């Protein structure tokens, strides 16, 4: 018997918001506030959307995978590239995107500190 209490597929509005988050990440600079994406009547940061999507284990659509993968670089994202290749789910993609955001913010803070 299948456990119906565990959803593996994100609701369409959340899946769309995650896809928009990947695009927004690519255009976002860590010197600016984190981009926000609209879901219904509310706006959510990319990081928060990652947290909302992280519970879904369904396969990531190819167009979202391709866009996220195009944002990754061998250095410093080699570990994330491997993780996403092994398990191309919404959950893995959300964890990868959130780690990329945190890494980008940390690199920005480090550069900012060095310039002072």
Gist of the model:
Helix content is 63%, strand content 7%. It is mainly alpha-helical and 116 residues long. The chain has one domain.
Question: What keywords describe this structure?
Answer:
116 residues; mainly alpha; 5 helices; disordered N terminus
Written overview of the protein:
By secondary structure, the chain is mainly α. It has one domain (12-107). Helix content is 63%, strand content 7%. It has five helices and two strands. It has helices at residues 12-27, 46-53, 62-71, 74-86, 90-115, and strands spanning 36-39, 42-45. It has a two-stranded antiparallel sheet. Strand 1 and strand 2 (42-45) form a beta hairpin. Helix 1 (12-27) packs antiparallel against helix 2 and helix 1 (12-27) runs parallel beside helix 3 (62-71). The longest helix has 26 residues, at 90-115. The protein is globular and about 50 Å long. The termini are far apart. The model is unreliable at 1-5 (pLDDT under 50).
Please tally the helical runs, counting DSSP H or I stretches of 4 or more residues.
Answer: 5
Helix-strand pattern: HEEHHHH
**Rg from alpha-carbon coordinates:** 15 Å
Structural class: mainly alpha
Task: Provide the spatial order of strands within the biggest beta sheet.
Answer: 1-2
Helix content: 55-70%
Number of domains: 1
Averaging pLDDT over every residue, what do you get?
A: 91
The rounded distance between the terminal residues' Cα atoms is 61 Å
Shape: globular
* Topology, number of strands: 2
Largest sheet: 2 strands, antiparallel
Low-confidence stretches: 1-5
Instruction: Please state roughly what percent of the residues sit in beta strands, choosing from under 5%, 5-15%, 15-25%, 25-35%, 35-45% or over 45%.
Output: 5-15%
């Amino acid at each position: 018997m299948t456990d119906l209490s565990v959803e593996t597929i994100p609701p369409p509005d959340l899946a769309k918001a995650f896809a928009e988050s990947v695009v927004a990440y690519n255009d976002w600079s860590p010197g600016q506030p984190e981009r926000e994406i609209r879901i219904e009547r509310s706006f959510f940061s990319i990081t928060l959307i990652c947290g909302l999507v992280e519970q879904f284990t369904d396969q990531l659509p190819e167009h979202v995978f391709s866009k996220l993968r195009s944002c990754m670089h061998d250095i410093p994202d080699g570990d994330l590239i491997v993780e996403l290749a092994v398990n191309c789910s919404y959950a893995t993609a959300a964890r990868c995107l959130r780690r990329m955001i945190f890494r980008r913010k940390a690199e920005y803070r480090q550069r900012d500190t060095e310039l002072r």
